[in-house]
Amino acid sequence: MHIPLDYETLRLIWWALLGVLLIGFALTDGYDLGVATLLPFVARDDEERRLAINTIAPHWEGHQVWFILGGGAIFAAWPFVYAVSFSGFYLAMFLVLASLILRPVAFKYRSKHSDPAWRSRWDWALFVGGFVPALVFGVAVGNVLAGAPFRFDSDLRMTYEGSLLDLFTPFTLLTGLLSVAMLVLHGAGWLALKLEEGPVLDRARAYGRIAAVLSIALFAIGGVMVAKGGMGLRLEGVADTAGPSNPLMSASVVAAGAWLDNYAAHRWMVLAPALGLVGPLVAMAGMSARRGWLHFAGSSLGVLGTIATVGCSMFPYILPSSIDPRSSLTVWNASSSHLTLFIMLVVTIIFLPLVLAYTGWVMKMLSGRITLADVRSSPDFY
């Protein structure tokens, strides 16, 4: 079968697509997680909590498609990455899934009974379903930057030498808190788009300002830790960008601060961390001007810039090993076959525009602000 794209190009395309899917998940389901995390703090009574909940209630189920697409892309395009991450990080992923399972249950059950204690318990379940995934996703990114404790033997059998508690280090907790702050800011931006002026929105802006300051501070501190903390790998020799996928065929060396190399070699990549810092500032300007669209646009830029910074910093690495650099997974040694990448690209070209079109259509059809009068009168609201 003739494939019109060479192996190197397909690998680069799928590296970029993986980033697009992760950013898509963070931009869409990210504000769902942020609103859920804010719920106990911005809403003081049942009506206010229902007001906040119903800003995300029509959207959150559709946003799960980005999570599924991301996992599917890793499985189809990067099987070595899938094998290491989904086995080594199994307990962390189970913690995320258990938390996410609370969300639909809480949505469906909180309004089945009018008892305040009953509803309060389900509201805290929504908080857990927002806060825990936001934290663990950030911790996972921190572990990717720091490297995971895995190795391959000569038969490419993987051994993972870590535990659940090993995932939580000072650096990874910082990246976890950055993730929470970033998504809380994004969630506050969504509330600014969807709510009428009132106490809930005022509180959301107040917590949004705190989250914006924390996002900038934690992002900057994390950058210093990456530069000074001995993190980073460099490829030895010339990479075989079109060679077979075998992690043991390339060699890597530990090099402190190597995650900053790409910014010197490709100056345009500086745009990513710049957006990570400027985005929260734009969001703060939107809060001060009481412009919900500007707040949400700024938080979206911050999310995009922060995630893109990780990808740009590490390229061509996808998952480095902290105990055996030679086993590290890169864009060039961890992909599926040439034919598989091409077939999956054709499938993606067909279906990704449908997902984007559906997401845009839903946003348009469900646009507009939610008021307390809507909550009191609509039988369809939670």
Oligomerization state of this entry? Answer: single chain
End-to-end distance, in Å?
53 Å
Write down the secondary-structure element order: HHHHHHEEHHEEHHHEEHH
Query: What is the SS-derived class?
Result: mainly alpha
List unreliable stretches of 5+ residues: none
Number of beta strands: 6
Instruction: Give the neighbour order of strands across the main sheet.
Output: 1-2
Kindly estimate the percentage of residues that lie in beta strands according to DSSP. Answer: under 5%
Helix content: 55-70%
* Tally of structural domains: 1
Coarse morphology: globular
* Rg computed from alpha carbons, rounded to a whole number of angstroms: 21 Å
Number of helices: 13
Biggest β-sheet strands, sense, barrel = 2 strands, antiparallel
Average pLDDT level:
91
Description:
The protein has one domain. A hairpin with a 5-residue loop joins strand 1 (150-152) and strand 2 (158-160). The mean pLDDT is 91. It starts with 6 loop residues before the first helix and ends in a 5-residue tail after the last helix. The strands form three sheets. It has a two-stranded antiparallel sheet with strand order 1-2. The chain is built from 13 helices and six strands. By secondary structure, it is mainly alpha-helical. The protein has helices spanning 7-42, 46-56, 60-77, 79-88, 90-109, 116-146, 170-194, 199-228, 261-265, 271-289, 292-314, 338-365, 372-377; strands spanning 150-152, 158-160, 233-235, 252-254, 317-319, 329-330.
